[in-house]
Design brief:
0% strand, mainly alpha, coiled coil
């Protein structure tokens, strides 16, 4: 079971909202809106995705990684490495 299962509906709702922001960006380009206005909306969508990513990462650390650490062994090493790699990707983005 995924560590975010309890929050799945809330996560889906947020992703739909972000999807709406992206569709709004497409509309803005189609309608030849002012570049700065589009960039402002890109920034808002980016922040929304970053916020979502951080919450999902927190869920992963508190659930999957902690559970694996309690068990120990190879599984713990794998989960910690996965989390470290995910954090590195988020920092670079």
């Amino acid at each position: 079971m995924a560590s975010y299962s309890a929050e799945k509906d809330a996560y889906l709702k947020r992703l739909r909202r972000i999807e709406g922001q992206i569709r709004g960006l497409q509309r803005m380009v189609e309608e030849d809106k002012y570049c700065i206005d589009i960039l402002t909306q890109v920034s808002a969508a980016t922040k929304a995705l970053q916020s979502f990513s951080l919450e999902l990462l927190e869920e992963h650390l508190a659930g999957c990684v902690v559970d694996a650490a309690r068990t120990g062994g190879r599984e713990a090493e794998v989960k910690v490495r996965e989390a470290s790699d995910a954090i590195a990707r988020l920092v670079k983005s």
